[in-house]
Give the backbone structure.
Amino acid sequence: MILNDESALKVAEFLLQVKAIKLQPNKPFTWASGWKSPIYCDNRVTLSYPKVRTYIRQQFVNAINEKYAKPDVIAGVATGGIAQGALVAQELGLPFVYIRSEAKKHGLSNLIEGVVEKGQSVVVIEDLISTGGSSLKAVEALREAGCEVKGMAAIFTYGFKNAEDNFKTAKCKLLTLSNYDTLVKQALQSKYITEKDLKSLQEWRLNPAEWGKLVGKE
């Protein structure tokens, strides 16, 4: 679910503008999983642009106020969600914590950094949703600490079906500021891509694991 179409297109425009997202259907990127992909996303880039950073922060705030109601705590998912979450918490005047990808191997072996109390309501901030696996581990950690997770808000999602299924199984609401379909629409409108590119990008989203094997064979 996105907040609204207008802001989703604006976020997509900014992500393309500052090259937080790059689209290269003819020169695919290779993900850590080994998948060939026409898209590369690093939303941490947005932090270097005050105008973009502020817009994204405000859209997060709007999303939380409209869809989740004000929680007790904002939590960021390491590492991409930490700075974004801290900005949102500051704007809302709320406490902030972040969740590590794995517990520290020394000291108190913390998984959650910061102070949360049993019974507190939390909204989790993430920068990017791929399969949702690592993001939902953060949700699980908060629930194990006795928190009520109202939901998660992220800048962008690829919209993979397995991610949707994972969030549904975890009974965790997901709201994103923009998504793959909106991004591709904005990229076409701004002539960042061609109609031929659009076809390739749509095919990738339907079958990302196999798409790379077909590139260049048509």
